[in-house]
Amino acid sequence: MPVQMRLACRLLAVKACRDSQLDFLRNKDLNPSSVALLFRLNCFQSCSRVMVVRARLVNLVWVVCLATLSAAAETGNRVPDLNTIVQRMQSAQREDKASAKPYTVRRDYQILDKSQETKAQVIANISFFPPDRKEAQIESSHGGMGEKVLRDVIAHETQPPRDAARTEITPSNYHFELRGTSTLNGRDCYLLGMKPLRDDKELIKGQMWVDAETYHVLRVEGTPAKSPSWWIRDLYILMSFGEIEGNWMPTFTKAIANVRFKGRYEMVAHDLEYRAGTVHTAHRRHSPGILAGSAIQP
């Protein structure tokens, strides 16, 4: 209980006792013993009333504290509206572009059949130069037609964007829907549905996970709004994003498709090492790596 409240209770008790004492002394018909007895009784009753008031004040303070804590918890858990989430997500994207740094990733691209057997492989060094330039150097490759597919994917990934704004995750390209909250790799997220505003093979119809604290896009999965090739059926893409040495980038992609007359194929890429800027020390990575652009284009 606050010090001010305890002091107020004590003052009430003292005042009640003094008032009772003055009343008894003004009554000349009472003998000293009666006065003393009545004085004690009245003081006891006054102090009892003070104790009741004090208890009620304590209860009131507890009620106010609990109500305040409950309101704070409710405010902390409140989910922002869809427009607020999208605006903060776009702000995070702009900050990422402004703070992007040069880097090089050595990647192992592979095509796997339905038995998870490697059918083609290309190892390439992909260098990024802000704001949007990429270069690729093929280190080794094999796999016949599958090798050509992988080389085409890398060429598509590193070619200069014609109009990058038309492929970004923004309200200009997508209609978003707030589907609720979720948890991804221990991070609280907002789950948003994604519906492309036009048929475009670079846009994905599906859903994404937006970090509830940083508003970075952590994961996107779904199907292209338009098939990238007549050869491809039922293409499904999953991409995860993360921060590496200050750069926010894709860190994992899996593309699964049924290829006409060939069956089910999967394309993946593993990061072998990462170099930031002019730093020559390679950072080993053990998780699947970056794969951008269209998935399979035989």
Describe, in plain words, how this protein is organized in 3D.
It is a single chain. This protein has 298 residues and is an alpha+beta fold. The chain is 34% helix and 38% strand. The chain is built from 4 helices and 11 strands; from the N terminus they run αααβββαββββββββ. It has helices at residues 3-26, 32-77, 82-98, 145-158, and strands at residues 103-113, 118-129, 133-142, 174-184, 187-196, 204-211, 217-224, 232-244, 247-259, 263-276, 283-284. Strands 1, 2, 3, 4, 5, 6, 7, 8, 9, 10 and 11 form an 11-stranded antiparallel beta sheet that branches. A hairpin with a 7-residue loop joins strand 7 and strand 8. Helix 1 runs antiparallel to helix 2. The longest helix is centred in the first third of the chain and has 46 residues, at 32-77. The termini are far apart. The relative contact order is 0.11. The model is unreliable at 69-75 and 278-298 (pLDDT under 50).
Outline the fold blueprint.
Layout: H1 3-26, H2 32-77, H3 82-98, E1 103-113, E2 118-129, E3 133-142, H4 145-158, E4 174-184, E5 187-196, E6 204-211, E7 217-224, E8 232-244, E9 247-259, E10 263-276, E11 283-284
Beta fraction of the residues?
A: 35-45%
Helix content: 25-40%
* Average residue pLDDT: 78
How far the N terminus sits from the C terminus, by CA atoms, comes to: 76 Å
Tally the beta strands.
11
Task: Determine the number of helices (DSSP H or I, runs of at least 4 residues).
Answer: 4
SSE topology string: HHHEEEHEEEEEEEE
Shape descriptor: globular
* Rg measurement, Å: 35 Å
For the sheet with most strands, the description reads: 11 strands, antiparallel
Judged by helices, strands and strand pairing, the structural class is alpha+beta
Low-confidence blocks of residues: 69-75, 278-298
